[in-house]
Amino acid sequence: MGKxxxxxxxxxxxxxxxxxxxxxxxxxxxxxxEREHFSKWGDxxxxxxxxxxxxxxxxEIRFCQFYRKAGGKNNDWxxxxxxxxxxxxxxxx
Length: 93
What we know:
By secondary structure, the chain is mostly beta strands. It has one domain (11-92). The protein is built from one helix and six strands, in the order ββββββα. The protein is elongated and about 40 Å long.
């Protein structure tokens, strides 16, 4: 388990297997967070990040979440798998 880092670390995006090995790196330049509490299940931290990719400087929006069991402390957060992302232009279309 861990905690939500503030400021957040850089993000590594691995290339799809069809493209080959390697990865891109991005910096989180903006973040919005909203915690939802469910008394039976625990807490979910919904996060929307604005990411700037290092290779070409374009920006993307990333969606992710953290979870902790009911009664958990600040170091009990677990990162939710499968953070999706998209270009900002796609959002406006």
